[in-house]
Specification:
The chain is an alpha/beta fold. The chain is 41% helix and 18% strand. The chain has helices spanning 3-17, 26-39, 45-52, 58-67, 80-94, 113-124, 139-147, 152-156, 161-167, 179-184, 216-227, and strands at residues 103-107, 131-136, 149-150, 168-171, 174-177, 185-189, 202-207, 230-238, 251-253, 260-263. The strands form two sheets. A seven-stranded mixed sheet has the order 6-2-1-7-8-10-9. The longest helix is centred in the N-terminal third of the chain and has 15 residues, at 3-17. The structure holds S-adenosylmethionine (SAM).
Length: 274
């Protein structure tokens, strides 16, 4: 494709999702958009770039953006945040009035493994009445998260077999999350670049393995917007390759806890015992 066409698609993706596509990602456009070109009978990526100039091409622009997201996820990914969560939850609950409903947000939840991992932690700990919200830009993955139906390959990645047997049931060669867990989690389409104020306040926010696709300015903007939705003693978990350093002064690392961040003004999030 020509440089102008690539630049036009990259600008559209950045504006709609924050995802930065550098010119070395042209192969990605070719592989990820091949099906879409065929489906819409568009002869080439350059022709697609031209079509996308039309502001009425909203449906196509959305489909192109979704096709260029990377939706890789797994249950209990990276382990450590979930270990920290287990130690954090009792302390958060102790600091809340009786009957408080814990709220946990899996922002950029992809196909739901992160949200259901949290649901399993809560259930194993006997914590009832919590609300887990999973959100993602992509309608397709949000639909899959709602279905809670996973392949053998997906459940083999990170999910201990006793958890699989306890929290899933087999269905036509796949594994369906048990209703009790599905009732704890709710999924909706949401762009991280949007206004999150209507969502209210969260005790815990997971925003993992998505900031890596953004430029520093967008990372800072998203981190600030998410921080604004956190309870003063809440915790945010980022992916192993992500940091807040140089991006926001509203969040600071929880000492000794890789990937866990608390609000700068909060006194609470220090190292937890155990
Ligand atoms: C690699 S997955 C990470 C899933 C999960 N958080 C994890 O760590 O396993 C990244 C997800 O971010 C989503 N995403 C990318 N840009 C987004 C945006 N601007 N708003 C919301 N979600 C976005 C993608 O659709 C994708 O599902």
């Amino acid at each position: 494709m020509n440089a102008e066409g690539f630049a036009a698609i990259a600008a559209l993706i950045k504006a709609r999702s924050g995802i930065v596509l550098t010119p070395d990602k042209e192969y990605m456009l070719e592989t990820r958009l091949a099906g879409l070109l065929k489906q819409h009978a568009i002869p080439s990526l350059d022709a697609l770039a031209l079509k996308l100039r039309d502001p009425r091409a909203e449906v196509l622009a959305k489909a192109v953006t979704e096709a260029l997201t990377t939706n890789e996820s797994s249950f209990f990914r990276d382990g450590k945040p979930f270990d920290h969560l287990k130690r954090l939850l009792p302390r958060l609950l102790a600091a809340r009035p009786p009957g408080h409903r814990l709220r946990i947000w899996s922002a950029a939840c992809s196909t739901g493994q992160e949200a259901y991992s949290v649901a399993m932690v809560l259930q194993e700990m006997g914590i009832r009445g919590a609300e887990i919200l999973g959100t993602d830009l992509s309608a397709e993955v949000v639909g899959r998260a709602r279905d809670g139906l996973y392949t053998q390959f997906e459940v083999q990645r990170g999910l201990p077999v006793q958890m699989l047997v306890k929290h899933f049931r087999q269905e036509a060669g796949k594994w369906r999350v048990q209703p009790a867990l599905r009732e704890m989690a709710r999924f909706e389409e949401r762009n991280l670049l949007g206004d999150h104020r209507p969502l209210g306040r969260f005790d815990v926010v997971f925003c993992r393995n998505v900031l890596i696709y953004f430029d520093p300015q967008t990372k800072g903007r998203v981190l600030n917007a998410l921080a604004a939705q956190m309870a003063p003693d809440g915790v945010m978990y980022l992916g192993g390759a992500e940091t807040v350093l140089g991006l926001t002064d509203r969040l600071m690392a929880v000492p000794g806890e890789r990937g866990a961040y608390g609000l700068t003004a909060a006194v609470a999030p220090v190292r937890l015992a155990g």
